[in-house]
Structures
1.
Amino acid sequence: MTEPAKEEPRRRIGVVVCQCGGNISDYVDTEKVRSEIAKEGDVVSARVEMFACSDAAQQNSIEEIKSKKLDGIVISSCSPKLHLSTFRAMSSRAGLNQYEYTQANIREQCSWAHTHDREAATGKALRLVRAAVAKTAKSEPLEKMRVETTPQVLVIGAGVAGLRAALSLSDMGITVHMIDSADHPGGHVGRWGTLFPNNKVGKTVVDGLVQDVRTRENIMLYLKTELVEKSGRVGAFNVKLRTGNGAAIPLQVGAIVVATGFEPYAPQSGEFGYGLPGVVTLPEFKELLGSRSNKPTYEGKEVRTVVYVYCVGSREPAEAGNPRTYCSRYCCSATSHVASVLGAADPGLHQFHLFRDIRTYGKYETMYEHALQSGSVFLRYDEENRPTVERDAKGLVVRVKDRLMAGEDVEIRPDLVVLVTGMVPRANEALTRVLKLPLGQDGFYREAHVKLRPVETVIDGVFVVGASQGPKNVAESVTSALAGVSKAGALLLKGYVDLDPLVARVDPVACEWCGECLKACPYGAIEEVTYGDKQVAQISPILCKGEGGCVPVCAKQAVSVLGYTNEQMLSMIDAMSPGIPGKAGAPSLIGTTSRKVPVKEGA
Amino acid sequence: MADVGKPGQEYDVMIIGAGVGGMESALTLGDMGFHVLVVEREPSVGGRMILLSKVFPTLDCASCISTPKMAAVVNHPNVRTIIYSEVNDIQPQKNGGFLVHVNRKPTFVDAAKCTGCGQCTEACTVSYPDEFNYDLVTRRAAHIAFPQAVPKKAVITRQGTSPCSFTCPAGVKPHGYISLVRSGLYDEAFDQHLEDAPLVGVLSRACYAPCEEQCTRGLLEGPVPIRGIKRFMSDRYYASHAEPTYGRPEKLTGKKVAVVGSGPAGLAAAYFLARKGHSVTVFEADKEAGGIMRWGIPSYRLPTSALTRDLKNITALGVEIRTGQKITSVTALGKPQYDAVFLATGDTGGRRLAVPGEDQAGVLDAMEFLHAVRDDHPPTLKDKRVVVVGGGNVAIDSARSALRLGAKQVTMVCLESRPEMPAHKWEVQEAEDEGVKVDVSWGVKSIPSTGSLVTGIELKRCTAVFDAEHRFRPTFDEKVTQTLPADVIIKAIGLAPNTAPFAKEIELNRNGTIKVDAETLQTSLPFVFAGGDSVIGPSMIVQAIGQGKKAAFYMDRFIQGLDVRGARPAEKLPEADKIRVASKAREDGTIRAPVRVSRLGTKERIRDFAEYETPLTEEEARYSSSRCLDCGVCSECQECVSVCPADAINLDMRVQQETVSVKAVALATGFHPFDARQKPAFGYGKFANVITGPQMDRILAPTRPYNAVVRPSDGKVPSSVAFLLCTGSRDEQAGNRLCSRVCCMYSLKQAQLLMGALLFSEVTFYYIDIRAFGKGYEEFFQQTKGMGVHFVKGKVSRVEEADNGDLTVHYEDIEGGGGHKTAKHDLVVLSTGLLPNQEAFGLFPAGALQKDSYDYVREQNEEIEPGKTTMDGVFVVGSATAVRDIPDTIVHSEAASAQIASYLRRKGVKV
């Protein structure tokens, strides 16, 4: 028998139940959750808000924290991914340590998941809030760790996006290391002729940037060079580059901007006749034209009739595993532009566009207009009834059912077929592995949040810009590159970064070095040190990400993550489980809750 | 909170517009350590995004994504956000920076005191289209922009002073009490009037109501019967309140004031001075108080009872009225008797015709005649022939009184032609209706008599009353004459001021009126102020009240020993734009026939001196007040003032200009939504169930106006919804060749939300191309298709409405065999596009900021230098340079921030 547990002093916890303007309250009885949670011992205030994140509601919470002298607050609303930082900042403004705040997710994990059972959803929401209260009851104030940042950035990829990013970083006084696996800078744009919509020449644009880059003292350009290792933390990454001749260059950089671009889709042999003489892709056609704007020739012969087949490698059906379901965004505009330039120079040129939807968005609409005005003919095809491209004795023949003429069969005999190919992600497996960057379904790098953090990634300090994140034209790539620059600037110009203290800690008394935690840590944050007469594990709070892989592997339960201590997790489970059918009277779900995990003071 | 900065501060960058783009730029630059000023014209930050339901393609809730940014931007230590403010101009400086003038529009609510409790919005008596719900519903004039507004503070919409309130010389606010009557708050309506002017009952009968002449409804079906409404509310109030509910003010100053004359000017001055705590004594020469109101205006227009009750409102404050006391010297009233004196002796003196026969017994002075009638010993006019000389209000009153005394025939003769007659047209009409003959353009040549009895009046043709400078200088044609037989002649040819006794003490004008400082009404003797007809000549009661009120303001300052000219009474806002209000009302088609104030028949009327106007019934008063167009929006009814627990309302707030200097400027001014009225064939604005995309988003939003997805006309749940894409986009005729980029996607999103909310609804898209080009967009389009939305490629030519509100869409069915087809839907959503907001160009010296060919702010080099305009140090963010969806706007805003940071660092700005 154990002694009766000593009564711990009561906490003063406030709870806010958010309705999320109906997102929660349409499916969860928020008032019931509020009135039930108000009965909990540590809860001294419980309110319902329409939008807990609104400024007015935050003011209410701040007022409540101050007037009721709260020492912990629980906001039951959406995913912490959305508002954890919002409410932490709010707690700080109220003078409450921000780590005394807990978010209970009763939206994604409750109201949205149980839209057809209000009663059960309400019960579940209450359990989730109870768990959050239990966790908060055992929370303690923590401080962020302020660490210095290195005012240097690694830019990966010296295409138009990378070049432009480097220049802007340089302007800000940040040193740039720019690497590219090719033997010359400039990427795809450097090989293109005229660009839409302003008829600039790709090579000229890129040459201008390269020239500027070469004059900057604080930009180092490494060609035929790759990133092979990355460790460290945001603000101070240790990276290792490998040059073409095998030399390794170690650097410390504060941030990494990934501008690795795209690849043009390479059609399969036979796809819309690809491989037949006279069938080329759009990039091939553009290279063929160079900076010329009239009288296209193919293998020495003047081209009088061109057929463009749109959406090659884009907007494909969502069959198992096919990532190319997306629209490549730039191709309609690029093709309309080419056609309008050619058509304007030579009204006798026959241009037929086999399209699905013309997506010349925004101001690019005028290029479509110009293409139409200069004699281009647009025929609409169906995904189910794709056009065919063949070659017979008389040459190329294209057949299409034109939806705009009630599905009439049309046959065209062109001199040249241009397959309007989209963009696909670059094959970057090695780099992706080194950076541990997540990919989207489309295979492009995935941003942290398309609207809240469009160039940031889940790895703090690593930014994805340009076409590496998804198809873009030149202006859009550069815009995205500069967005990455602004985020890198916001990170580095201050000279420091505040890191979350929610990291793993080792109890050296309990630890009897076995090395399991070291093996489990993907961040190299753990080392073996001497502690009195024994060896124990020590965790660098700077390198640790608080990921917690080390916690379950410790046989001695000597490791714990601050803010998510074993004690907190177990009390959450206990708070959540009462009354679960079949579990009544059952022992605690995991181990025992009476064990106290010592936590060292300070950080 | 937001307004932490002090005027005159310097900033590294000013961002105009706190939409999603401006906020993102501000946060990014603030995070870098730059000092940022954000200027937002609306009462809340958040722009258009916060008004959306969910956002494509992830269906995140727009509020969830916007609100943290909104809170962050106003709380960021490096960012100062000022809302409800507009940049007036931006002057580039020699050193490369900019001098900026910002107009901080008055919110009429002290933001430091307002807690956002919303009580004012509930108390407010004026409805106004809710722009944040794209006019789908109304809000109040006092409002909080929307539930998630940041800062969450009330704002009162005021678009000038309503013409009725603007014109009232006594500072009464008809718009205020009308909006209160409309709301059924009759006692409050009365109280509000009493706050602005006493003598409510008198005015409700005898005011010539210049407000009604100014009423904007007068430009439409006819003015609101403002005086009738006033009579309704005052009669109703007096019926239940025989005595005033208040007494002497709690704080008395111990100062004493004498008022000479108990006409409207004197009583008004006494009332307002007494409210200030001064002891006021009114001296009245006549035997009863009221002046012209008691003795000059016939009781069929103004019964004594109304005046008697009105007087109680004044005497309740402790004002002592001493009747039968004629004052002949003001100096005698000076200290130590009184600290100040107000002279308001009026102008009841008659003028002379200066013609032979004028001094005979049968020739009466109008004022004496009217006084005698009111004093119950009228001259005997039974079966007499009466000629009234004069064309003004007094002449009319005299003529009509003569009729009521049984005169056989009453004729008015005057110098003026009909349009020149000083009397109101309706008065002349009423007099003629009752049987008065009006003979215009005659001067009096002589009054023949038998020696003791007047036999008639000899008239000569008046050829002109005024000279070229519009001075009164009549000319006559002596050859054209006529003689009217008459027994009695009543002279109503103008009034002379009763100022003769004071001529030696204070300066008078040549015409006998008292000389005063036009602003303060102070006379040449500093402790003596004067007002009313003895200063301004013959006027209306309401003007005289205004004079008394004004004098009281300055006399109070004089008595307190303050610099008399050191302050002015609160000025009204400029008059609201009547033409705009009227044309809006015409557009909205809100025709409402006026209620005519009914009157007794003419035969009944002239039997006695009883009131002949029938008061409005409650129903008529409510209906009539509901005809008010709320020209200035806020009616100044003061309900918000009385309910605000924080005492935060301040209707005297005015525009304040702030000057700041900034090193860089970022234009995040966003776009203009296309006005669907520009496509009249689609019926927007005419057919209730034709709505725009932004309105559909509001209907679907969590803070939705109807709390359900229903159509506006009848609240029916729509079972067939049509989306008309490219409304105002890709359309040369509508003035916009460009594609608006967002409409396809927002329509697809709305379709998904609709199909989720209404399980059995059919959704049809009429489209040209579906432009799902962004990350995840095509997949979203395919998903929508998979949910069963119908896609019809073809343009819609017109929409027709059936009696039940259903709609017929006429379209060209391109892929279904071609030709013109029709389809029925019960709700049509116009997927309206976005247009450039061109306001930024006007902020700079002419031509300094270049436009592109589509009137967007031109990016100098869109491929390589996004966000940079053609002006050094001026940057452009998001849709101000080309419309964008939210992800593209955010990326562009961040890019512009990098450009701004690079620029500032090159300029040597340290962070």
2.
Amino acid sequence: MIVALVLVLVAVGSVAFHLWSPWWWTPIASNWHFIDATITITFWITGVVFTAVVLFMAWCVFRYRARPGHRAAYEPENKRLEIWLTLATAVGVAAMLAPGLVVWHQFVTVPANATEIEVVGQQWRWAYRLPGPDGRLGAVDTRLIGPDNPLGVVPGDAAGQDDVILDGEDLHLPIGRPVKVLLRSIDVLHDFYVPEFRAKMDMIPGSVTYFWFTPTRTGTFDVLCAELCGQGHAIMRGRVVVQTEAEHQAWLGSRGSFAGLAARPR
Amino acid sequence: MSEIAHGAGGPIPAAEVPEMELPHPHGWWSTYVFSQDAKVIGIQYSLTAIAIGLVALVLSWLMRLQLGFPGTFSFIDPPAYYQFITMHGMIMVVYLLTALFLGGFGNYLIPLMLGARDMVFPFVNMLSYWIYLLAVLVLVASFFVPGGPTGAGWTLYPPQAILSGTPGRDWGIVLMLVSLCLFIAGFTMGGLNYVVTVLQARTRGMTLMRMPLTVWGIFTATVMALLAFPALFVGAVMMLLDRLIGTSFFMPMLVEFGQQLRHGGGSPILFQHLFWFFGHPEVYIVALPAFGIVSDLISTHARRNIFGYRMMVWAIVIIGALSFVVWAHHMYVSGMNPYFGFFFATTTLIIAIPTAIKVYNWLLTLWRGNIHLTVPMLFALGFIVTFVNGGLTGLFLGNVVVDVPLSDTMFVVAHFHMVMGVAPVMVIFGGIYHWYPKVTGRMLDDTMGKIHFWVTFLGAYAIFFPMHYLGLLGVPRRYHEIGETSFVPASAQDLNAFISVVALVVGAAQLLFLFNLVWSLRYGRESGPNPWRATTLEWQTPQTPPGHGNWGPELPVVHRWAYDYAVPGVAEDFVPQNQPHPAPGHAAQGHAT
């Protein structure tokens, strides 16, 4: 009796916690509200299943508790019931998987008009590179990384001359324009993580990875590292400022280019 | 239907299982220490695993103290915190759960449940334990070397694991990798034993489809482990070479704190594939024995046949097979080719179907049962709640696009603790309360058992259920403190403090359990040979605890499946597997056919 009651309380308490606890996701600031929608669908399906399972169990524990003269029913199999349950499960799984795969297809399909920007991770800070007026990022080479060239931009590549390098500064992005974030690390694994954007991806030394999103809300957002990168992992922070197109252009104009940086007198 | 229940009275093979030469002990050392008796080896495995598990428990306390009350404990700096989480994770997954289920329960139960005298290779079996012990000692040694144990996270991802920004880079990581290699070598010796014993040493009448689900679970998990562990083994050897002699299997060209290193051309993500090719089956290597054991606990203590035995066996086998094609769901945001996501999300969600079938069949075994709320049954119920909860959150993380925001957050930590931490541990406890009488001849104390259950079950649930919501909020995992952010409300820290307090209490309840283990050895009620009135062979031994060789002069002969509870027309509510069917004339009043 008590056991059944506690099981009911576990089910009811879990649902109540879900509905009324103050902890929920941060307001979204990107185009990935479909991801939130898929999470919501998944919460509904799994929540119903969990509650049903625990309540059914509680009922069994109460109804079929051992008492004098009571005896279990002998029934090794029930093919119809088993097939029926299997099919119902398959439908539930498909109802979660199908929207998930549709949204994943959007996630891996970068719009042709997306601006490429680069985020570079290193122990334990962030650096960024934005394309200059030519809209293209220049080539890079890890071997060229040094005090004067923190991101290893190839000096001979014309496309890189006007690149804007942000080392130890906030990243600024214009609202409403899709961005393809190219991710690069020069030492260990990192992960560029802005909770409000929902999207994230590891950065791997030796490769360039990417994801894309469109900022949909202006403001300043925290950047965290989401892949263990050594003892400074938790303090590897940065900020992204999402601003209007006009503000962004003004800000961009105030930054120096790679060529300017390289020509700087020492 | 009756066919599986009774094997249709199928013919018992005439050929005797050949009697095996048992290496009988000569004196105290070979009886209790260098024993070749699987039961002694099983107990040795279990006690060693519990001992190292206590270390992991203390580590979890330390990390919870830090998370609940950041800044209060000055000796827990970030490097120490990373060392705690790394060692806690690795100990729990490999050195406790794997060793306890396969080395502990496997050794003790496989020969007894199958009517065998012992494992088929007793000497190799003994060697398996001693190599396991060596692996544990090497692991423990890493606490005492300069720089301490590795803090690379239990996943040991390179390049970070072997670079100087990670604690334990000098010695810790080397000892960890060596210890893993030893563990795998030792496990392989035991694992081959379990597989060959199941396939070759079953007594007469014990067909595969009459084996208790405990044996099915352990057997399938062992086969999987034999296939999965080599991937970790080669990964560990390659990383050792990278670390010690400067090869570049996993090391691309990189710049460490402004310094160009001499590595180049390696692939960090290759290690992740090797690791998870082992690591995902590992989840089921822990889960399948738990599935098997809990099936037997539920059936015995609900006095009802397990529902859908054949489906249960096939579900175990299918889950085992599928678990080898889902590994990259741990790598959705690893930077691998994103198109892999379609494949791995699909396989991962498909695996939910056989898993759900198992849950339904446990519930349908309770349904119309005669449920005795013994301590093992309570733990079985606790398992179902936590497993279903953790399994369902797996549907979030397995569904590639949902995983993107949630991966590397506390949601993941909550999920895997619920599904492969709490749930299997519930089964381990249930199993210990269930089989302790066979091992010692005495019952564990019931009152202490019930306190242990309620504190552990409700406490663990209160720890890990709310933790999901921290992850949803965006709190990353592997942070010793969240620090200043704009998106985490101050109330999240209250939740963290609450979780930490509960964790301390739940940990303390385990000390009560340990006390019970020792106390009952001396003062527990005498159990007799079959206190739960169970059907399986281990309860039908001539002696309790069973002697070396298990069965006296004659091996048992099996006449039926393992789940003849409450058979219609039979007065007793259970029929042991080795009880013959009544003579044909009496069959009419017996079971429906």
